[in-house]
Design brief:
It is built from 22 helices and 17 strands. It is about 35% helix and about 15% strand. The longest helix is centred in the last third of the chain and has 17 residues. The chain has about 575 residues and is α/β, with parallel strands linked by helices.
Length: about 575
């Protein structure tokens, strides 16, 4: 008990140091625990957590409090699982709403439930236990590995799901479990494994107007990676169609915040922090990015950006980032050779990439960081050599520190590469070692995630509900324990990493993100021919099925079309299947 008081005191101090936290009286309200199954520092750096927290607490009859899984990946054995705002244990809440962005946090989900004394499997919990609901990109695209653990999953964007879900929860939390499941299944975008067995895929839900509730920092805390800035989502989705990128497909179509809305959000944010962080799948693709960067600098804002493409690259944004004191300019070629970039549908030329490096040198950034992936479909040793060649060419231009991330590629559901096998761990390791041996003497730092753990991520990303039993068997989170648990369940990692046939039933077909299987198979064939697929237009073309007619033929369609032509350039053309 004495130890619990220590953690309660820590939670109180954390809340006292925050700005924007919402404290409510529990009387007559639906208590919801918003759970991030990782550390406070990681969770509070996610805009997704901020918007869901706000959406729940915008409802006057709901009290929503945050829960994190300790300050480390493996919290102390005596650390209680309690909410920050009122320091209550999880079993006092009516609903536990998990936001899960990364497959590797599945391990933490199980460990957290075990620590909180909550039965791991849904079948072991009756109405005396909280309802467990999960959302976020990882489970959004394939809920099956956790389908025996959670009662329901939110398939889609929170702005579209949370309000009707709250109405359902008021009723469901008072019902026997079987009836509660039926009530939750009536909500658009909610997948209930106990109800939706063998039926049609549950379609994702999405919001057409991201300006109705701008996604910005809700709670300011210095104990996060981005604690020195206000984060603003300036666009959602991407029409580029990079074949490796799950987010690029599941958040289609691209939707932008208007310049005036971005500036209004920034004015509010500048009351809290002098730095503004621009967030989107590709910040430099925004139709008004030059104006955004210029106007924010006029307002005295220091700028940061989540990601940038080099086709085109915004020099006003680069200039604004440099003037704001950013130490690193980050670009993501993803592949070193032109052929490999065609395979992954990233039509950037060597000249465009090196022009971005020239701008980094021109504006005196202390460090240049370049993101590449190793182990992509059809990759050869020559393609890996091209990564080294590109990095050394950049080093010739950029006189200061150059670092590359050589990230092991993990095929993900709901992409054109969802059927492809993951490259063997040993091959990826050899290719990363080659890059280190060739580049480190040339003054280029090479970083990489663990290929062995990337394979575990691949199994979780493309696995089925048998993996829930594997997760539940694990008492520690390490590779040996993972392999032991797989073997105990009669499974092997390779069966989840193998190549899939186009005709076979895929575990994640229980949900759909809108893009059709026909589109993905068509695009996969183009990848196999090294053919590029043109970017989708800023308004819907109805070819991949992510849009609908209301969106595609909305008023001012032609104006939107014209405004975005500059961002997409020659890569802008309606799809033809």
């Amino acid at each position: 008990m004495k130890q619990n008081y220590r953690y309660i005191d820590q939670a109180k101090k954390t809340v006292a140091q925050e700005e924007g936290v919402i404290i409510k009286n529990w009387g007559g309200k639906l208590p919801v625990a918003l759970v991030w199954p990782n550390s406070y520092r990681v969770g509070m750096s996610s805009l997704a957590l901020h918007i869901v927290y706000r959406l729940f607490n915008d409802e006057p009859d709901v009290v929503c409090e945050r829960v994190f899984f300790g300050d480390q990946q493996a919290p102390r054995a005596d650390e209680p699982v309690i909410s920050l705002e009122s320091q209550r244990p999880l079993d006092e809440f009516a609903t536990l709403a998990f936001t899960i962005s990364f497959e590797m946090d599945y391990f933490n989900v199980v460990q957290l439930l075990r620590r909180a004394g909550i039965p791991i499997f849904a079948a072991e919990r009756d109405e005396s236990w909280p309802l467990l609901i999960a959302g976020g990109p990882a489970v959004y695209t394939n809920p099956e590995p956790l389908a025996e653990i959670f009662d329901a999953f939110a398939i889609g964007e929170a702005e579209a799901i949370v309000p009707p879900l709250i109405d359902a929860l008021w009723e469901a939390t008072e019902m026997p479990r079987a009836e509660a499941y039926q009530r939750l299944a009536q909500v658009d975008g909610v997948y209930v494994p106990a109800v939706h067995t063998g039926g049609p895929a549950i379609p994702r839900v999405w919001v057409k107007d991201i300006e109705s509730i701008p996604t910005v920092t809700q709670i300011y805390s210095d104990r996060t990676e981005f604690g020195d800035r206000t984060l603003i989502e300036i666009a959602r989705g991407c029409g580029r169609g990079c074949r490796f990128c799950m987010a690029g497909y599941v958040y289609r179509p691209m939707r932008e915040m208007h310049l005036d809305t971005v500036l209004a959000a920034a004015r509010h944010g500048l009351k809290h922090r002098d730095r503004i962080g621009l967030v989107s799948a590709a910040v430099s693709d925004h139709s008004w990015i030059d104006d955004i960067a210029t106007e924010l600098r006029k307002m005295g804002a220091r700028l940061t950006a989540s990601s940038m493409r080099v086709d085109p690259i915004s020099e006003p944004l680069i200039k604004g980032l440099a003037e704001s004191g950013n130490q690193t300019l980050t670009i993501a070629p993803e592949a070193g050779s032109v052929r490999m970039r065609k395979v992954i549908n990233k039509p950037q030329s060597d000249a465009q990439i090196l022009h971005a490096v020239e701008l980094a040198a021109k504006y005196n950034f202390p460090q240049l960081k370049m993101y590449f992936m190793v182990g992509q479909p059809s990759e050869t040793e020559a393609d890996v050599e091209a990564i080294a060649d590109m990095a050394l060419a950049a080093r010739e231009i950029f006189p200061r520190h150059v670092a590359i991330n050589a990230t092991p590629y993990v095929p993900k559901p709901h992409t054109a590469f969802q059927w492809t096998a993951m490259m063997p761990v040993e091959t990826i390791e050899m290719r990363v070692n080659y890059l280190q041996e060739r580049l480190n003497p040339g003054g280029v730092t090479v970083r990489s995630d663990s290929p062995a753990w990337a394979a575990v991520e691949g199994a979780l990303a493309r696995g089925d509900r048998r993996l829930g039993r594997v997760l539940a068997r694990m008492r520690k989170v390490n590779l040996r324990e993972w392999q032991r648990a797989l073997e105990a369940e009669g499974l092997s990692q390779d069966e989840f990493l193998r190549e899939r046939q186009l005709t076979e039933k895929l575990p994640w077909e229980s949900v759909t993100t809108g893009v059709t299987k026909a589109f993905f198979t068509w695009d996969l064939r183009r990848a196999q021919r090294d053919d590029l697929t043109k970017a989708c237009p800023p308004a819907g073309c109805l070819k991949c099925n992510a849009c609908d007619e209301e969106w595609a033929f909305r008023p001012n369609y032609q104006a939107a079309l014209g405004a975005n032509l500059g961002a997409y350039g020659d890569n802008f053309i309606p799809l033809e299947i």
